[in-house]
Inverse folding.
């Protein structure tokens, strides 16, 4: 699923490791989300959106690859 | 939610290595009871080596297998890998059963293993459907 996680993360100066620790997932999972290889669960998508003070729709774009 | 602070026990780095050591100890005890202490020590050594590999390995695969990397993505990987493993096992069991029967044997224990697999699958589907 297309998303803006990489842009939002780098705008805050966070590493994938730091964002992963904040979300309680691995660095590789953040990398997979950013590369659109893995679609996060709804709870994780909500947590990511809240972390960046956005809505889920603003971070994830369902009309993208899927 | 992902921000929870306490980790389930299976996400601690020592969990799977400890399970491996425990299984190794069970194997050692079983071989010992069967008066085959040498084979028991070899089995325990193999399981101890596996535990060390899981405890000190650095790759994501090792971290996922040993516990710390088990987040929701890993859970999905684990489910798919388990399903694939089940497909491989049931294929082998059916194949072995057919070969045994074609050779004039009674197909044991492959028919029993296949029955266990089939019944377990049906029960799992029924329970998971009721809980979802």
């Amino acid at each position: 699923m297309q998303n803006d996680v990489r842009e939002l993360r780098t705008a805050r100066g966070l590493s994938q490791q730091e964002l992963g620790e904040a979300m309680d997932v691995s660095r590789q999972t953040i990398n997979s989300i950013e590369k659109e290889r893995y679609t996060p669960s709804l709870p994780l998508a909500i947590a990511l959106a809240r972390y960046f003070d956005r809505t889920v729709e603003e971070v994830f774009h369902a009309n993208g690859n899927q | 939610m992902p921000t929870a602070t306490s980790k389930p026990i299976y996400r601690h780095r020592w969990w799977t290595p400890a399970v491996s050591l425990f299984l190794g100890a069970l194997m050692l005890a079983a071989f010992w009871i069967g008066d085959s202490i040498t084979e028991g020590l070899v089995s325990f050594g193999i399981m101890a080596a596996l535990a060390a590999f899981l405890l000190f390995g650095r790759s994501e695969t090792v971290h996922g297998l040993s516990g710390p990397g088990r987040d929701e993505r890993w859970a999905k990987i684990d489910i798919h890998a388990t399903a694939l493993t089940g497909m491989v096992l049931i294929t082998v069991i059916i194949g072995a059963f057919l070969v045994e029967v074609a050779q004039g044997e009674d197909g044991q224990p492959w028919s029993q293993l296949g029955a266990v697999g089939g019944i377990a699958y049906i029960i799992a589907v029924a329970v998971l459907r009721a809980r979802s």
About this structure: Residues 63 and 69 of chain B are 5 Å apart (CA to CA). DSSP finds five helices and no strands in chain B. Chain B touches chain A at residues 1-4, 60, 63, 69, 71-74, 76 (CB under 8 Å). The helical segments of chain B are 15-33, 37-56, 60-66, 72-102, 110-131.
